[in-house]
């Protein structure tokens, strides 16, 4: 018999296929990220299409995307049947903006790693120029030059 997205899988099969622990699955279920039903003997049974949700949770965790953001996105998906391609397209659009912001933050970090990040350490040559006497502390705590794009030096429009 061929597998299909509406197959029912035991928690053991879900654990084997995803590598996620039973306690993590319970946690995701409590958070409303995944759903199960009760089968014979009160055993928890999952639809096969939950594998995709669990896999996306794993990836989101690796990317440090908060589970609350994942939950917001998953809340728009049907729980009683496998989401369609169109459903996932909608999810993808919702997620794209967040991922773009993350990409920009990573690019900024990559770019600024050898420069002054405005953290108050004054340990780089560039700090003398970009954060003399830690003047950037007036803009708030943390590496303000990484956090706020407005703190980035602006290029002069005159040549
Ligand atoms: S890198 Fe820390 S203040 Fe410049």
How would you describe what is shown here?
Pfam families: MerR, MerR-DNA-bind. It comes from Nonomuraea phyllanthi. Keywords: 2Fe-2S, DNA-binding, Iron, Iron-sulfur, Metal-binding, Transcription, Transcription regulation. By secondary structure, the protein is mostly helical. It folds into two domains: 1-83, Multidrug-efflux Transporter Regulator, Chain: A, Domain 2 (Orthogonal Bundle), CATH 1.10.1660.10; 102-152, no CATH class. The chain is 48% helix and 6% strand. The protein contains seven helices and three strands; from the N terminus they run βααββααααα. It has helices at residues 11-18, 22-30, 50-62, 67-74, 85-112, 125-130, 144-147, and strands at 8-10, 37-38, 44-47. The protein has a three-stranded antiparallel sheet. A hairpin with a 5-residue loop joins strand 2 (37-38) and strand 3 (44-47). The radius of gyration is 23 Å and the shape is elongated. 14% of the residues are buried. The structure holds FE2/S2 (inorganic) cluster. Residues 116-124, 127, 131 line the site of FE2/S2 (inorganic) cluster.
């Amino acid at each position: 018999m061929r597998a299909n997205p509406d197959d029912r899988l035991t928690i053991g099969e879900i654990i084997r296929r995803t590598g996620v622990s039973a306690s993590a699955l319970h946690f995701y279920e409590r958070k409303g990220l995944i759903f199960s039903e009760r089968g014979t003997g009160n055993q928890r049974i999952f639809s096969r299409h939950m594998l995709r949700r669990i896999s996306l949770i794993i990836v989101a965790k690796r990317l440090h995307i908060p589970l609350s953001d994942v939950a917001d996105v998953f809340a728009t998906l049907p729980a009683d049947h496998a989401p369609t391609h169109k459903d996932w397209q909608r999810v993808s659009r919702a997620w794209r903006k967040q991922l773009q912001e993350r990409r920009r933050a990573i690019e900024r970090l990559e770019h600024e790693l050898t420069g002054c990040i405005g953290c108050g350490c004054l340990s780089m040559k560039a700090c003398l120029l970009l954060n003399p006497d830690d003047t950037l502390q007036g803009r708030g705590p943390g590496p303000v030059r990484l956090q706020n794009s407005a703190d980035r030096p602006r290029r002069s429009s005159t040549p």
